[in-house]
Amino acid sequence: MLSYLLHSQFECLGGLSPYDVWELCIQASCMDIAPKIVYMLIYNLVYQLISAYFSHKVFHLCSIVGGFAVMRLAISHSNITHFLVFLAVGYVCMYCANRVHLKKQIKTEYIAVLLCIVYLLLCEFVYPNQDDWIQSRGLFMIAAMKIISLCFDLQNGHYFPSPYVYAGYMLCPANVMFGPWISFTEYNIARVMSQRKKFTWVLRTIHVLLLSFFFLSMSNCLSIIVIPSVIDNKWISAYRRAFSFRCSHYFISFLSEATMLCGGYGDSKNQYVITRPFDIELPTSLVSVVVSWNIPMHRFLKKYVYLEILRFGYFKAILGTYLISSLLHGFNLEIAAVLVTIGAYSFVQFRLQEKLARSFNACLRVRPCRTCTHKYKRSNWLIKLVLLIFACITICDLIFLGVLMDSVGYPDAPSIYEKWGDLDFLSHWVMLGLYIITFI
């Protein structure tokens, strides 16, 4: 019976048997990338050992060497050279901005933001080899975030790093390729954290590696099993594509956590949480999705973008944050459309749920109250029903937005209008209706 199930062909698998899916897809995709991941983890383990037992100068030099070794596993020599040019330009700009700030006592950190965004936009629209740029876009985005955060920190009293310390921070092997963003202070903590590892650190590292390969398999091979292709419905088909894209994000996020743990980073529980798939797949609101999608990037945007713009108003701060985020991603049209739309949707949902919470004295805010004083708590069945409706709307929004992401970088892909038109622009109409309700 087991042999029959393994080798029999199933229509939902495109005529392949489960054994064929395992051998031709899951095993092939995992084994193709496994050697590079193993080398990456080894480089970071060596980096952690040196961080714990050698001087601070050796720690930075090891970070530089490890960063080069990791980059050579994944990107071309021309991309590495281009990346080093970007880091050099960033350092010169940061030095000049800091000198002007010290002499004139004026805020100049926004120069770094402008420089990084202009550089990324030029690469997105002018760079001659677009295939090379797509391969290394994430590398530049993480570096740009580091430059921006360091420039802000410098003008808040942080010491100016020497060139080799700056290079160590930028090329840190634990996050140079896949992220996440870490602050300069957090980068230096590795030397302390590396001396506190316990057996739970080994278990957590193995755990996140298994999760990473599981989501890689889900993205490449198994999403069609979870959501069979025999179900002929445009929303189900769109959900399958969006789910596959989200699984690829989870793969990168858990792989990033594994490299961070091997590099010596983590909290007191030997974790470095980057994403929370459960909060994304079963969301209570778009705000929870945004926070859980990439936790370190959320911290970066909140501290260095959102709080800087908040003095101009809440709505401007929300849209400005998502606009800056899309610019850091290179202002790819699909990514920009998704991020700006999420910003608008989040504002509408936040405003409506705040109004409902005030009007009915009910705990209906997008985030649970820390000390709830509402008459109707979240344990109330009617409140649970209303929150479930908002959760279903959020899931539909994720489908609607996710269909744009499954073909980013492909020149022959359908346009944004065509993809959203296939779904009748339903999510836009729902949000427009919710926005109108806020004025009633």
TrEMBL record:
GO terms for biological process: lipid modification; Wnt protein secretion; Wnt signaling pathway. It is a multi-pass membrane protein. GO terms for molecular function: palmitoleoyltransferase activity; Wnt-protein binding. It is an enzyme of class 2 (transferase). The chain crosses the membrane at residues 26-46, 58-75, 81-98, 110-127, 164-184, 204-231, 330-348, 385-405. It catalyses: [Wnt protein]-L-serine + (9Z)-hexadecenoyl-CoA = [Wnt protein]-O-(9Z)-hexadecenoyl-L-serine + CoA. Coiled coil: none annotated. It is found in: Membrane. The keyword DNA damage does not apply. It comes from the Eukaryota. Its EC number is 2.3.1.250. Pfam families: MBOAT. One of its GO terms (cellular component) is membrane. Keywords: Acyltransferase, Membrane, Transferase, Transmembrane, Transmembrane helix, Wnt signaling pathway. The keyword Acyltransferase applies. Belongs to the membrane-bound acyltransferase family. Porcupine subfamily. PANTHER family: PORCUPINE, PROTEIN-SERINE O-PALMITOLEOYLTRANSFERASE PORCUPINE. This is Protein-serine O-palmitoleoyltransferase porcupine.
